[in-house]
């Protein structure tokens, strides 16, 4: 009977009589340069750049070296307009508003020629009451976007201060004055395109009597018997009266009758969920989400409703002194969980081009890569709702930075007021998500204050420096901290990441760390194994995308890393291509041609980053997180990403998938011993078989051992150790490999190859890889085999840039068949003709025999 009543109630709520209506103003948009009277069609959401591109008024911003020639766009003012119809029935509603969910950035908004809004913050939506200005029939909305450069230049001149915004790719850094995505002004992995436009939708809203502005479904307590929650409803009341407020979920209903007065107010409705099923991060359990409907009724009329999904779980961060320094451990449902993931940047310089399909692919890639956390980095944007919905669904915890990175900021009253509004808007928008793990004030500002030499480098006076430091504390130590306490109490907040500095040995014992000794410090990859912090929240190494992607921005005349176009798509000016070449020369022979160079750059990145990933996991519980830099790209070019701009997996992403496997076998040489670790992320013990073989490059077995092991829950431990000399017994270390694998019920759960020497020291055979192509019920399967070791086998379908292999850049062991599936639009017969197979020995200019 109870379920029947609930079903009837939900059915009634599904057909509201006077519910709020939301109409997106999507069509009929036009735009123009304000110094020209030529109106052209526009796409909204969109940007000026993409609208100009659609009309072929500018070349593709990502091709060739077009970036510099398009810098005029941000110096101009631009205007958008649209007409929309309002019916007499709509005008009968008690209230109508225009909801601007994303204006980029300095915008004057006119409705029927009346100024209704002066927007100054890209990150904060604005809703404006407009009923008195609307008329039946045609209405016109006009939005004037001021040039961000022209708008902020007076602030720079008045401040008489050059802020240390080193990533701002302009002689006069203005990015710090704008509450706008910092990366738009340039970064060391992306171009400078300072956009303007309506980047998120505009809605016309109409409602009667009461508007349900927000519903915060806060978890108060949780145990195996019951979850106690509170629905805090923010209501904009047009007509005072008694209303029925409901919370309906899968296991029950809570309802109260409440007398509301005119104006904005918050009403709390406690509710419970019996026998709660927990939400778990990816790899540890299911991502159980409960559907919850919140509604406002009067009589039989449903005036307002909101539908949400919530997950029941506890997430805390243990950041406290201990015997080894200062911990940084994410606790989920009472368990310490090693965080495996990445740093995320915006997926395009022109944000409205990121489609729902791209978001879905992104999170499918994260899940396939065995992530359980993604850091939304502070130089980008607060992502859209779909991003966090997918994080909830896929079990990816979100480390959420506020949008501040790598510089000091103003602290005047107007700036702080904008930040306060931005913070409140986004905290309220995101706080219901099960995936939201923590808030961080900024990226690298605190560590920069102490270690980057800003005071002397920018010649700040003592008074200027003291004022800037005071402003820093006001912004990150007080304002943002207090906004989190007010709007999302209980969620962990800390002012700046990292807590510790990579340049000092003692800092590896305290909190999170961004280790850039490899790359910026030009230390070799082996340093990753010795520089292990309590939580590694940034580390990385660059590579180039593959030939499919390079073709999209550079023709064959530019296929040289010193060419004009290749240099234009390398934004790490201080290291860049020279660093890649230096590391490549250290670990590898010279590549035979340009495609081989691209391939080697990816192998170099992957093998180096594998060293760090496995070192972090072996070191648990001392180290409890590994978030590499970076997941994705905002344009095509050289970068630290594992997945390029077009969604193609680089070698590193395949290595990440294996290194983040919930069960990992990892071998390392420690002094004179060779030790094999098993890392078990599961919350249960695992009974496994550890299989080890030392072979030469032709597959002859020189030593082998099988031993049953028990990998204890949520631990890393050495399961086997042997003296190096006892293992090799005089064998040439450049001609042998140690292959280890973990089996359960004869199924390989994890395997790994340990090399005793760098690739350039090994006489890698130029062996031929045999490939059998099969059509298996529409899926193309490849079976590969070689009589000798083929290291870092790379599979490429030249005729299908969107193809994706289940494995790639892998080591093909002598005599062992490896099966790979490929997602492709090609038939098996076409795959057979077009498949290219590369491996290290074939990529070198001089083959080692």
Automatic annotation (TrEMBL):
Domain named Beta-mannosidase Ig-fold: residues: 765-841
Entries under InterPro entries matching the protein: Beta-gal/glucu_dom_sf, Beta-mannosidase-like_N2, Beta-mannosidase_GH2, Beta-mannosidase_Ig, Galactose-bd-like_sf, GH, Ig-like_fold, Ig-like_GH2
Pathway(s) it belongs to: Glycan metabolism; N-glycan degradation
Primary enzyme class: hydrolase
Gene Ontology annotations of biological process type: carbohydrate metabolic process; glycoprotein catabolic process
Catalytic activity of the protein: Hydrolysis of terminal, non-reducing beta-D-mannose residues in beta-D-mannosides
Enzyme Commission identifier(s): 3.2.1.25
Keywords: Glycoprotein, Glycosidase, Hydrolase, Lysosome, Secreted, Signal
Domain Glycoside hydrolase family 2 immunoglobulin-like beta-sandwich: 213-313
Keyword Signal in annotation: yes
Subcellular location: Lysosome; Secreted
Keyword Signal: yes
Protein name: Beta-mannosidase B
Species assigned in the record: Chitinophaga lutea
Lineage of origin: Bacteria, Pseudomonadati, Bacteroidota, Chitinophagia, Chitinophagales
